[in-house]
């Protein structure tokens, strides 16, 4: 599809339409039907049509998956393999991901509306490299030797935490699978993955690849289904040792509650955001405009660190708004298989309607609609990239996470003022600071309460850089060695020593 002057979408022939090979649950190394025999529809957001039916996992299916994972942890080889062997298997898995990159990217495009060319060139290669990164860590999990103050010698062991439940979102299906499964496997854990019900297809394909790579049966299990059923069964399960969740703050609360009233399992949460991009008068102007657009619109703004609050200093505000309007007019909304597209459809009808309702809130509250503001095309879940100016801090569009292509532009005068306003949110996931002044950059980056601060850049993710939130954006970190540590217990071992000349 591409944009025509009449605002409609025109279809181009797709370069690649994936065959749907895996639709059943993956438990103990086998693809199986749900115990109930129930299925659910997964929808193509480009059209609203059904792609296929996928097995609907329920509590009893989760029980079977946990039983397999527990046996694989307690009695199987995976946690007991030398790190070098886990490394080799994870490297083989990464190679298989590269070999199947086109098919995986197509599954995420047809199932989640993600841009095929971004998936093939960015998401899938990044997923493979994430597995390689943690493969390299698998044989470097070491404890410490402790110098005790009494006549003891001691050391620490870092041991796999056990059976992990991963509950992943729909905005980055492939990257989230790798970010959670990669370090957990390197640590020696076994696991159950519950992908978002909107985007289950690539997770099942990855399950297939884990078996081809030689990961033993029961180590990786994938249970597709609905959050309130399959997800809740994971977070409340008495034999799961940890839950790692990425998603909404509201669901994060429920997971913490379930974990507390069950077996007090450990929880790590990466939740919502309302991240500020702060642009000072001295910023590289063209770079600032581009960063604001990308920060607000990349991946249809289906990204929890989206810079949806763009604070612009008053000296360049009017010029900035004018340039922003000019730039957004050329933003291409279209079919994710079209190489010219910069923005595909929203993932589902419910999310599509929610974003449109936020746009109506912005209009009613008195913000100025600079661009966009409505559905794009006549079929599917496409929304025009939308920019509001003259936004006030107390407006709904400036306070709540929209998770869609809606940018709010706010004016500020001083550094102290913008720090206060940027921090006046329940979230604390990320922030961008655009300035040529080193003192401003240092002061603002140390003052913003968020887990990632990007100076003169945005979305500066890397496998080496830990990522997570402050406040109601959650706790725990993905990526980097912090992402590995959360799947490890630390055990202290001490023995007495006698008549030694050294303590």
Model description:
Helices cover 37% and strands 21% of the residues. The chain is of the alpha/beta class and 503 residues long. Strands 16-17-18-15-14-20-21 form a 7-stranded mixed β-sheet, sandwiched between helices. Strands 11-10-9-12-13-23 form a 6-stranded mixed β-sheet, with helices on both faces. The N and C termini lie far apart (73 Å). Residues 1-14 have low confidence and may be disordered.
Write a short abstract of this structure:
The chain is of the alpha/beta class and 503 residues long.
Helical content (DSSP H or I, runs of 4+):
25-40%
Globally, the shape reads globular
The count of helical stretches stands at: 15
User: Strand order of the main beta sheet, please?
Assistant: 16-17-18-15-14-20-21
Give the radius of gyration: 24 Å
Gap between N and C termini, in Å?
Answer: 73 Å
What's the multimeric state? single chain
- Which ranges are low-confidence, i.e. pLDDT below 50, for 5 or more consecutive residues? 1-14
What structural class should be given to the helix and strand makeup?
alpha/beta
């Amino acid at each position: 599809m591409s944009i025509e002057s009449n605002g409609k979408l025109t279809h181009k022939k797709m370069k690649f339409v994936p065959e749907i090979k895996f639709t059943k649950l993956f438990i103990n190394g086998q693809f199986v039907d749900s115990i109930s025999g129930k299925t659910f529809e997964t929808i193509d957001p480009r059209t609203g049509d059904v792609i296929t039916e996928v097995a609907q996992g329920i509590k009893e299916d989760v029980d079977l998956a946990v039983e397999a994972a527990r046996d694989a942890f307690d009695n199987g080889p995976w946690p007991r393999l030398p790190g070098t062997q886990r490394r080799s298997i994870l490297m083989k898995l990464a190679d298989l991901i590269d070999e199947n990159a086109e098919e995986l990217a197509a599954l995420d495009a047809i199932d989640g509306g993600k841009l095929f060319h971004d998936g093939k060139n960015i998401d899938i290669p990044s997923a493979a490299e994430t597995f390689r990164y943690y493969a390299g860590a698998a044989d470097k999990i070491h404890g410490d030797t402790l110098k005790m103050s009494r006549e003891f010698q001691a050391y620490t062991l870092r041991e796999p935490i056990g059976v992990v439940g991963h509950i992943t979102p729909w905005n980055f299906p492939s990257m989230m699978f790798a970010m959670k499964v990669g370090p957990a496997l390197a640590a020696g854990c076994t696991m159950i993955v519950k992908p978002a019900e909107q985007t289950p297809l690539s997770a099942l394909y990855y399950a297939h690849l884990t078996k081809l790579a030689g990961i033993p049966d029961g180590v990786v299990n994938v249970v597709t289904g609905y959050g309130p059923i399959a997800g809740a069964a994971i977070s409340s399960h008495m034999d799961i040792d940890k839950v790692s969740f990425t998603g909404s703050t509201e669901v994060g609360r429920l997971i913490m509650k379930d974990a507390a009233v069950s077996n007090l399992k450990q929880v790590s949460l990466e939740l919502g955001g309302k991240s500020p991009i702060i642009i000072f008068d001295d910023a590289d102007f063209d770079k600032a405009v581009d960063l604001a657009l990308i920060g607000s619109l990349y991946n249809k703004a289906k990204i929890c660190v989206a810079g949806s609050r763009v604070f612009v200093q008053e000296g360049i505000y009017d010029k900035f708004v004018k340039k922003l309007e000019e730039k957004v007019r050329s933003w291409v909304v279209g079919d994710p298989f079209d190489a010219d597209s910069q923005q595909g459809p929203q993932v589902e009808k419910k999310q599509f309607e929610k974003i449109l309702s936020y746009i109506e809130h912005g209009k009613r509250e008195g913000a100025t609609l600079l661009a966009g503001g409505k559905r794009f095309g006549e079929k599917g879940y496409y929304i025009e990239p939308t920019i509001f100016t003259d936004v006030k801090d107390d407006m709904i569009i400036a306070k709540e996470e929209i998770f869609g292509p809606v940018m709010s532009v706010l004016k500020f005068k001083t550094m102290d003022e913008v720090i206060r306003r940027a921090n006046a949110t329940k979230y604390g996931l990320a922030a961008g600071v655009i300035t040529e002044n080193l003192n401003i950059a240092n002061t603002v980056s140390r003052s913003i309460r968020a887990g990632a601060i990007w100076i003169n850049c945005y979305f500066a993710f890397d496998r080496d850089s830990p990522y997570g939130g402050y406040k109601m954006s959650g706790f725990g970190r993905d990526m980097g060695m912090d992402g590995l540590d959360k799947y490890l217990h630390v055990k202290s071992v001490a023995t007495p020593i006698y008549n030694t000349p050294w303590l």
